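Fold it.
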Amino acid sequence: MKKLIFRVSMLTAVVLSSNAFAGKDDHVIIQEAAKNIATVQQVAKMKDETGVTLTGQITKHIKSDHYEFKDNSGTISLEIDDDIWRTADLKVGDHVRLVGEVDTHRYKPTDIEVVKIEKIHH
């Protein structure tokens, strides 16, 4: 019985700790991003996992779900899942407003993981 209790408590600890590393839910990012309307230049100074809203243009398809985004202050890479891309009916050259999460890395430049995007008419 003691072994069973130990195993269950260990399993619970693993599940709870893995949830802590899962990141924020999309709705939390969207709420935070409403308060953080930013430029590419400002994003470079933000902390990892900060929700942001950016407005600009998708300028290039880099590979798979990675794109280049530009505003008046600079360029940054975006990661846009295929289902989000298709649902928004996007193409390179479109002007967009996007909501995403700042994703900092140790050995490559900061990018944005997009959770919501919409075309805007320029």
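Confidence is low (pLDDT under 50) at residues 14-21.
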